[in-house]
Specification:
The complex is a heterodimer of chains A (499) and B (155).
Chain A: H1 4-16, H2 18-22, H3 24-36, H4 42-53, H5 58-75, H6 77-83, H7 92-103, H8 107-142, H9 145-162, H10 167-181, E1 184-185, E2 191-192, H11 206-222, H12 239-250, H13 253-267, H14 273-289, H15 300-324, H16 330-341, H17 348-353, H18 355-383, H19 391-410, H20 414-431, H21 436-459, H22 464-470, H23 472-498
Antiparallel strand pairs in A: 1-2
Chain B: H1 2-7, H2 11-34, H3 38-41, H4 44-61, H5 81-98, H6 101-115, H7 121-142
Helix pairs in contact in B: 2-4, 5-6, 6-7
Chain lengths: 499, 155
């Protein structure tokens, strides 16, 4: 629980350091911008502005980077809702209901919902972090390779389950993604599926693949329409609707808090966190509320579940960074670089010796979340004007930005080539109702899944089964994985019996 | 029976699933050809086996697929502009490495605007020029990335 004197020192640190507050609003704005523009991810934004933090003290530097992280976390929801382009894999589930809402002309409402869900979710996770940073870190330390392997597979299987009526296609799409993700040099130094091309030695770049599969392939389908929203009356920017969306989100406290809890716990798992958290939260909400089969067609609870989970996973990933010194993803890895640039090493010793600084970072993030609510409101009011742009201008513009953004991401032509190839594959997959999300998550997690399996095998000297039966968390995760795979069949049987 | 199956088969979908199966088989052979230890195929083998089984299951049950109209908006007749935009995108990619980012971006924008139905030449030209300058300049100055260009080499 909270260390009283350290908490007071943290408040003193924050109230005395005006620089720490001056850098927060620009940081949030940078995060919102980088999260919103397809191709320019939060990690790119943080990497670009990392050198700037070298001229700052440690606390302002970290608060500046976390402000980009916080702003970007919500910023990714904007293109996910308006254009079906998740800025990162953490926003994949937001597209499931957010984009259909936008197509129905409820984009203002959806953005308002996403903002409040993000703010409450992130706020919840930082509160949990403030109270339980130590226990969360210890829990993460207990997870071995077998648990990490199963969490990743569980996340993958959830997407297949989410593809209602086309379970086998969801599975095939996920397996296809995993196979694509294995292309390149393996952990054991073996070349696989590279066609001898040096560009493929590092594997298929995940972010360009994500942009191609989600953005470009969807843009091809939009060619038929004149505007994102067909009804002219519904295209207007409407502050009242945004505010009503914000209020509406608060009427589902259980969905938000469950998303927050799922995000905080799963978000703490390095590498998997945010990619899986939003899917787990979405799947559990869908399972509970999808009696009228409204999910996937613009159900606001889907947006709430996804956004609250992906924002709260930010807090979870900060827990492992601060308490263990382990970065959970690109964003926290850059923060770790800022730590070392200031001669600070995250980990148990940092947590015990600089508890006041850790609390100051967490409290600073809590204030940032409040600021995000205000700045995000102004930002989405402007961003939602995108629906007024005729698609004959929007489609070529987004395609060009996607290609150039992916070039910026990879630094060579691998990015643009990946976007184009995956745009075409994605378009074909969508045409035959294969979930592109499953393939993208597969690409993202493949090397990790394989790596964890190999580590489990090597740790146990080949006695994997006896190892699994000795670990209750592994057994629990295995049960969850099998249940999620069997769920469609169980559901089908139950419905058949009811009839 | 086979004739009936083939009659009801969605050819495009069947080709797509077959391509996926072939890809997975090829990948497995590629891995096996260089594998010397069990660890090399430990994950790949079950993965490819699963892909082939699921793919075959989809192929076998494909004839049960509902009529195309029930499959949602994605399954409508392909708009003739979609393959043209895809070709333009591939040409843009080629142009980036041959004639530079600036000229290829300008040409792609002009071409796709025209394909999308914009017929005012002044709008096409001004929009394409403005966005090209913004993107190329943005990449160079904001992201500090070397961008091969033909016209704006002195930026």
């Amino acid at each position: 629980m909270i260390d009283g004197p350290a908490f007071q020192e943290a408040i003193a640190l924050l109230s005395e350091d005006t620089d720490a507050w001056a850098v927060v609003p620009p940081g949030i704005l940078i995060g919102l911008l980088f999260g919103t523009i397809p191709g320019l991810s939060i990690s790119i934004g943080m990497a670009i502005f990392l050198p700037l933090t070298l001229h700052m003290e440690f606390l302002p530097a970290i608060l500046f980077l976390t402000a980009i992280f916080t702003g970007g976390g919500f910023g990714c929801a904007i293109p996910a809702i308006l254009m079906n382009i998740p800025g990162t894999s953490a926003s994949v589930a937001t597209t499931f209901d957010g984009y259909p809402m936008a197509r129905l002309g409820k984009h203002n409402h959806a953005l308002g919902i996403a903002l409040v869900s993000s703010v409450v979710g992130a706020g919840f996770s930082y509160l949990v972090l403030l109270l339980f940073i130590g226990p969360i870190a210890n829990l993460v330390l207990k997870l071995g390779p077998s648990e990490m392997f199963l969490v990743s597979l569980w996340g993958m299987s959830l997407i297949a389950v989410l593809q209602e009526g086309f379970f086998s296609r969801g599975l095939l799409a996920g397996v296809f993604g995993l196979t694509l993700g294995l292309i390149g040099v393996s952990d054991l130094g073996v070349f696989r599926g590279t066609f001898g091309s040096a560009y493929l030695f590092d594997g298929i770049p995940a972010i360009p693949a994500l942009i191609g599969m989600f953005a470009a392939s969807e843009l091809f389908n939009l060619i038929r329409d004149d505007y994102l929203i067909v009804d002219e009356q519904k295209r207007r920017m409407n502050l009242v609707e945004i505010l009503s969306g914000m209020k509406r989100a608060l009427s589902y406290p259980i969905v938000i808090l469950r998303g927050g809890a799922i995000g905080t716990i799963i978000g703490a798992i390095p590498g998997v966190g945010s990619s899986v958290a939003n899917l787990v939260s979405y799947a559990s909400t869908k399972r509970q509320y999808n009696k009228d089969r409204t999910f996937g067609k613009g159900d606001e609870r889907g947006v709430i579940a996804s956004e609250s989970a992906n924002s709260s996973s930010e807090g979870g990933s900060m827990a492992t960074l601060l308490a263990l010194g382990i970065p959970g993803g690109g964003g926290t890895a850059i923060m770790l670089a800022a730590f070392s640039a200031h001669d600070v090493t995250g980990g148990p010793r940092f947590l015990s010796q600089n508890t006041d600084v850790v609390y100051a970072i967490i409290l600073g993030n809590l204030v940032q979340v409040g600021l995000l609510a205000l700045m995000g409101l102004a930002f989405i009011f402007l961003a939602s004007s995108i629906v007024k742009v005729p698609l004959r201008f929007l489609i070529p513009t987004v395609l060009v930005m996607a290609l150039l953004g992916s070039y910026a991401h990879t630094g060579n032509m691998t990015g643009p080539v990946t976007v184009t190839v995956f745009a075409i594959i994605g378009w074909v997959m969508r045409r035959y109702n294969y979930p592109v999300a499953a393939t993208v998550i597969g690409i993202l997690l493949a090397t990790m899944v394989e790596g964890e399996l190999l580590r489990s095998y090597q740790l146990t000297s080949g006695r994997l089964l006896s190892y699994i039966f000795d670990r209750p968390i592994t057994l629990l995760l295995l049960a969850l994985f099998i249940t999620s795979l069997c769920f469609p069949f169980i559901q089908k049987n139950l419905m058949a019996r009811k009839r | 029976m086979l004739r009936n199956y083939l009659k009801r088969l969605n050819t495009g979908h069947a080709v797509f699933v077959s391509c996926l199966i072939v890809f997975h088989m090829w990948f497995l052979f590629d891995v096996v050809s260089t594998a010397s230890r069990i660890e090399h195929v430990m994950f790949v083998l079950p993965l490819v086996t699963a892909a082939c089984f699921i793919g075959l299951y989809i192929l076998i049950t494909l004839h049960r697929e509902k009529e195309s109209t029930d499959l949602g908006e994605n399954h409508q007749k392909v708009d003739s502009r979609i393959p043209l935009i895809m070709i333009a995108l591939c040409a843009y990619l080629l142009g980036m490495v041959t004639i530079g980012f600036d000229l290829s971006t300008f040409l792609f924008l002009s071409c796709s605007l025209w394909l999308m139905g914009e017929r005012r030449i002044s709008v096409i030209l001004s929009f394409s020029v403005a966005l090209t300058i913004f993107c190329v300049f943005g990449l160079r100055e904001m992201v500090s990335l070397p961008v091969p260009t033909l016209l704006f080499s002195d930026f």
